[in-house]
Design brief:
Oligomer: single chain
Order of helices and strands: EHHHEEEHHEHEEEHEEEEEH
CATH class of the largest domain: Alpha Beta
Radius of gyration: 19 Å
CATH architecture of the largest domain: 3-Layer(aba) Sandwich
Strand order of the largest sheet: 1-2-3-4-5-7-6
Strand content: 25-35%
Structural class: alpha/beta
Helix content: 25-40%
Number of helices: 8
Shape: elongated
CATH superfamily of the largest domain: Gcn5-related N-acetyltransferase (GNAT)
Number of domains: 2
Largest sheet: 7 strands, mixed
Bound molecules: coenzyme A
Length: 262
Amino acid sequence: MKLRPWCPSDCRLIYDWRMDASIRRWSFNQAEFAYSDHEQWFARFLADNKRLGYILEDSQQAVAQIRFDPAEMPFCYRVSVAAAPGLSKKGYGSLILQLACASERLRGLANLLVAETMVDNFPSQKVFARNGFFAAGKACRGVHNLLCWALPMASDNDPVAVQLFAEKTIQDELQKILVLTGQGYLSDGSSRLKFFFDAATCPLESPGEVIFHFNTCAGQLLLDLAVGFSKKLTLPLVFDNPQMAVIQICAAFKGLSGQGLC
Ligand SMILES: CC(C)(COP(=O)(O)OP(=O)(O)OC[C@H]1O[C@@H](n2cnc3c(N)ncnc32)[C@H](O)[C@@H]1OP(=O)(O)O)[C@@H](O)C(=O)NCCC(=O)NCCS
């Protein structure tokens, strides 16, 4: 078994797998698209040093592929994985996820991995759960109901103190995922990182505080305000749910703090 990065000659193979009905069935965009569009996307992907794609080979035959794209926040990456059509149920999906997550290059870029699977995509849920991903709530994208997943990657995984201003159900969900992933813990006043949801009011900010406000709008969670965060964000940013938003922000905050930037 060998894990290797995508190369230009993989362009056709990645397209053919992506267009195969057994894989398209589980894609959020199930429409077919032209090979010429794919070629342009693939060339941009390979030229972008912030995106990673790998192939798993078994006896020199490509048997699975995986890619990592920057997610909503810095230091956070979104995983997309597939076994070759006709080669599922052989453990290749799980193996490529395991090997790629251990790669030096990914570990140098990512503090947190996220993924989404459709609620009825049981093979992919097994693959993520078996490889240490934590269930990070539900979401809805267009007509698709999803389960969200998250895996902390940072070797220095000290949790960040956060303050939450949200209704109790959101607070409870957030507390659970922060503890599970080790990304943060609830503090009652001394933390610099503060999250406000919807109508929760924002007390006067103190120097050094980093404040985020989210608005739920037509079933979407929008980050519409970020104060004191050292990285410029293009707002509004859309997140799948409060859990995915807060753990990504904690991971980004830790990454920037580690570089002395937060
Ligand atoms: C999800 C996917 C990557 C799993 O890869 P895989 O190589 O089949 O993974 P594994 O062999 O480790 O199988 C994981 C589990 O799913 C089951 N499984 C895989 N394919 C299955 C299928 N078509 N029908 C029923 N069960 C299936 C396996 O039997 C195994 O369960 P078990 O150990 O309880 O028997 C693969 O099914 C795939 O490419 N799906 C389409 C793309 C996709 O959904 N990607 C995930 C979203 S990012």
